[in-house]
Design goal:
The complex is a heterotrimer.
Chain A: E1 6-13, E2 22-29, E3 34-38, H1 45-53, E4 58-65, E5 68-69, H2 75-78, E6 83-86, H3 98-106, H4 111-124, H5 126-129, H6 141-153, E7 159-163, H7 171-186, E8 190-194, H8 198-204, E9 207-212, E10 215-221, H9 222-227, H10 229-235
Parallel strand pairs in A: 3-8, 3-9, 6-7, 7-8
Antiparallel strand pairs in A: 1-2, 1-4, 4-5, 9-10
Helix pairs in contact in A: 3-6
Chain B: H1 2-30, H2 37-58, H3 74-103, H4 108-130, E1 145-146, E2 152-153, H5 155-177, H6 179-189, H7 191-196, H8 201-226, H9 233-248, H10 253-273, H11 279-293
Antiparallel strand pairs in B: 1-2
Chain C: H1 2-32, H2 39-54, H3 69-91, H4 96-116, H5 118-121, H6 141-168, H7 170-180, H8 182-188, H9 190-218, H10 228-241, H11 246-270, H12 276-297, H13 306-313
Classes of the chains: A alpha/beta, B mainly alpha, C mainly alpha.
């Protein structure tokens, strides 16, 4: 998959070897894209991105980042390679302050870049800048998400992966989170988004990929997927009146 | 007379506190109670004893007492050597034993068992090498100086107390102001997230071992200077160390020191009013009380 | 030849007392996963209770009721059961390693009490003249030794059979379910706690019985016997033999005791007296290393059930 900033090739992954959750996925993200990964519950969306990020073991297949294979790269090296991941839960260090969370992210940067980068984050996330000495565990859901993203962006990654960033957030906050993601994408960071909130996801995405039972079943542009009623009913729960955020 | 008891309690408590800091760090980051920590303390004392002895033999001038203290420059030098050597010992044990068990996903209970076995091994090794005869860093006798309210203390004891205070402040600063310290706290909270944040978790774990071992070495040398050196010295402190670490709240460095002081004071009061033979029971009582009333300890957060 | 048989009987009898303690530990650890680092405490309670009830009168201390041995042994088991129940009730809600620390502390305090409460326990002087089973046969050492072996053998066998039966009973099945399925355990809630407490108590009772048996066989007990080393010995026996498995408990006890006794004999025979303490220390070093090696290389021991042990050895999957 030439030109892809991130790609997987026949990826099989899971928690137990004889029970793979990701059953062979070929997937590619092009530079500057914002791709949404969608699908029913239990399809393996989370496991897929966790395998790319490195927190779930890969059994076979490859993960490539910007032309380099990272399948065997140790977890702590992946962010240095330019791949940042924001998990769905426990994505900040609750016992550390906001400032320490950011400082921690900056610690892996070369010394001369640290201060400038942190200052940049303060500017991008004024809400966090005003709470530097607050314990991260006491932040609201939306603020936590901001902090998690700020942490991930500190290294100016090539690709940012987020696992259900809207989970547990009110609609207003979801909107602001997704607006922020769109801004980040515009600044050149490719984004991969696992989401249950199909509407919000497709509103910002360029492309969507639907996972079903560990396999990539459908791909298409955001418009195509939005307008395909059949797909919507089959996999994206369009018929049932479900509100995802509360 | 109560003043003397309190002073004695503070001094022994500061040693317990130092040892407890090592336990609380390894416990919170490695997620298991290391029964071998007490014996690290013993090894720290013996390493220093051996090095100080060697230094004294080749450069007798180093044995001359510095000022009012009972020891010469051979001791501080030996202490530094001991910190390094005890750190190496800890890394060795981790590499041979604990890391392997961790790698295969062993439950904490297996690690505790292995720690028990390692403790017995290294303790008996000390007995084999040095025999159980008590040893001393120096023959020099110390005169106690008056302190306050009728209490007296030797210059060695006061130095010990001062060193403990300095170390606690130092450890606290390292944990809060340095990248390594932040990394340790991050790994302590969430290993997977720490890895995602770019922290080399394996290296941080090694750092924690060295840190804890170094503190144990200092506590061991202190105990050796103030009391005596014998193979069971660390093992006998194990219960007070654990009591202090849990009382303070696992993961809290200031908590461990404060709790250490409380345990030391309680033991001193027990010796004064109940009898020295019951001293070891004090830690157990404190332990049971805290586990029943407030398992997260004084400075810990409520359990998840 | 006769001496050899005599010694063999002596050795086996002592091994069986350890086997008893091991069986008790197996109930606690193998069946409920509770990590008891205070075995020495329960053994001590059993030994002292039985001794105090059955020894002849001694003006220096309490006791000396001169009751029959069987009464002593039963009382020992009951006393240890109560102690286990109490300690368990205090600590069972704790996470595994807090339980370990608490039981460790408990054993330290029990030994301290035995040492300090001189008017009750004889203090550092211990308790002597503990009646031995079939003492009237004493003049004939060979017969005496064999009869003692027979008595202990019968008791051990009886306990073994009872435990096997217990484990197959409905009570045992519930315990196994709790042990193997954390969620079932949580769903049962307080009920699960009660079952585990019962198992803890049963295990403690058997340990106490083992302590009593040992005391009556040797004839003399003192606080020095009940130190963390004893706890470690019994753990070593269970780990080597195979935790979770009653036969493994007995096998491990005999095997480890054989190694212990044999190395002790070798040291006494070949090492000059002034170096014997050092040699003994080296022996412990090697045994410590051996235990760690077993944990690393074959954690389930010789006969261990792979299922039981695998649950405790491997972390729960994410």
């Amino acid at each position: 998959m030439s030109g892809a900033i991130l790609s997987t090739s026949a990826l099989i992954a899971g928690y137990e070897r004889d029970l793979p959750i990701v059953r062979g996925i070929d997937f590619a993200v092009h530079p500057g894209e914002l791709v949404a990964i969608l699908g029913p519950n239990g399809a393996g969306k989370s496991t897929f991105v966790k395998a790319i990020a490195g927190t779930v073991p890969t059994f076979s297949g490859r993960v490539m980042l910007g032309g380099e294979e990272i399948t065997a790269t140790p977890l702590h090296q992946r962010i240095r390679a330019g791949l940042a991941f924001v998990p769905q839960t426990e994505n900040i260090f609750a016992s550390l302050t906001v400032a320490e969370n950011l400082q921690l992210a900056a610690d892996i940067l070369p010394k001369q870049l640290r201060a400038a980068r942190i200052a940049k984050m303060h500017k991008t996330f004024p809400d966090l800048a005003s709470r530097l000495n607050q314990r991260a565990g006491s932040l609201s859901g939306g603020q936590r998400q901001m902090l998690a993203v700020a942490r991930a962006l500190m290294v100016e990654p090539h690709v940012l992966i987020l696992d259900e960033p809207s989970a547990g957030l009110s609609p207003k906050v979801v909107a602001s989170v997704f607006a922020m993601l769109r801004e980040i994408n515009r600044s050149g960071v490719s984004i991969v988004l696992v989401e249950q909130n199909v509407k919000a996801a497709l509103a910002v995405a360029d492309r969507g990929a639907i996972l079903v039972e560990g396999l990539l079943r459908h791909e298409g542009t955001a418009d195509e997927l939005s307008n395909d009623a059949e797909l919507g009913a089959l996999y994206l729960g369009r018929h049932t009146a479900r509100s995802h955020a509360s | 007379m109560i003043a003397q008891t309190l002073v004695d309690g503070l001094i022994s408590g500061s040693m317990i506190g130092l040892g407890a800091i090592g336990i609380t760090l390894t416990y919170s980051i490695l997620r298991f109670a290391n029964f071998a920590h007490g014996d690290m303390l013993s090894w720290g004392a013996y390493f220093a004893f051996a090095v100080a002895g060697a230094l004294g033999t080749f450069m007798p001038g180093l044995n001359e007492s510095i000022g009012p203290f009972s020891f010469g420059w051979s001791l501080p030098l030996a202490l530094i050597a001991s910190i390094i050597l005890t750190g190496v010992l800890a890394l060795l044990i981790d590499k041979i034993l604990f890391a392997r068990l961790r790698a295969r996903g062993s439950a904490a209970i297996i690690l505790v068992m292995a720690g028990f076995g390692a403790a017995l091994t290294i303790r008996s090794l000390l007995e084999f090498i040095f025999t159980s005869k008590p040893r001393y860093f120096t023959d020099a006798l110390q005169i106690t100086q008056p302190l306050i309210a009728g209490a007296r203390a030797t210059p060695d004891q006061l130095l010990s107390l001062g060193l403990a205070v300095v170390l606690v402040i130092g450890v606290h600063l390292i944990l809060t102001r340095t990248a390594a310290g932040r990394a340790m706290r991050a790994v302590s909270e969430n290993q997977a997230l720490a890895g995602l944040a770019g922290i080399d978790v394996a290296r941080t774990i090694r750092l924690v071992w060295v840190f804890g071992a170094g503190l144990a070495a200092v506590a061991g040398v202190m105990s050796g200077v103030l009391v005596q050196i014998r193979p069971f010295m660390g093992h006998d402190l194990l219960l007070p160390l654990f009591a202090a670490a849990i009382l303070g709240g696992i993961g809290s460095v200031p908590g461990a020191m404060v709790a250490g002081l409380i345990v030391g004071l309680s033991e001193a009061l027990c010796v004064q009013f109940v009898g020295a033979e019951w001293r070891a029971a004090v830690s157990f009582l404190i332990l049971v009380a805290i586990l029943l009333l407030r398992p997260q300890g004084l400075f810990g957060r409520s359990a998840t | 030849m006769i001496e050899l048989i005599s010694y063999g009987a002596f050795f086996l009898t002592l091994a069986l007392t350890y086997a008893m303690m091991c069986l008790g530990l197996n109930v606690q650890w193998g069946q409920t996963g509770l990590f008891n680092v205070g075995i020495a405490g329960f053994v001590a309670i059993g030994a002292y209770v039985s001794a105090l009830l059955t020894t002849p009168d001694d003006p220096a201390r309490f006791g000396g009721l001169g009751l029959p041995i069987a009464v002593g042994w039963i009382a020992a088991a009951i006393a240890s059961a109560i102690a286990s129940g109490l300690l368990g009730w205090l600590t069972i809600r704790l996470r595994a390693d807090y339980l370990a620390i608490a039981t460790f502390g408990f054993a330290v305090v029990v030994q301290l009490a035995a040492l300090n409460l001189q008017s009750l326990t004889g203090g550092p002087f211990g308790i002597g003249f503990i009646p031995r089973p079939f003492a009237e046969l004493a003049p004939n050492p060979l017969l005496f030794g064999l009869v003692n072996l027979a008595v202990l053998g019968v008791v051990t066998l009886a306990v073994y059979a009872a435990l096997e039966h217990l484990m197959r009973s409905p009570w045992g099945r519930v315990l196994r379910a709790i042990r193997e399925n954390e969620q079932a355990a949580t769903a049962l809630g307080k009920q699960a706690m009660r079952f585990r407490l019962q198992a803890f108590g049963v295990g403690g009772a058997i340990m106490g019985l083992g302590g009593a048996m040992q005391g009556h066989f040797i004839g003399f007990i003192s606080p020095e016997n009940y130190v963390p080393m004893l706890t470690f010995q019994v753990w070593a026996m269970l780990i080597v033999g195979g935790s979770g498995n009653n036969r493994g408990a007995i096998l491990g006890a005999v095997l480890v005791w054989a190694i212990w006794a044999a190395s002790g004999a070798v040291i006494s025979a070949f090492v000059p007296p002034d170096q014997q303490a050092r040699a003994a220390a080296l022996k412990i070093v090697m045994i410590g290393v051996g235990i760690c090696a077993v944990l690393l290389l074959r954690p389930r021991g010789i006969l261990g059930e792979s299922r039981t042990v695998s649950r405790h050895i491997e972390k729960a999957k994410p």
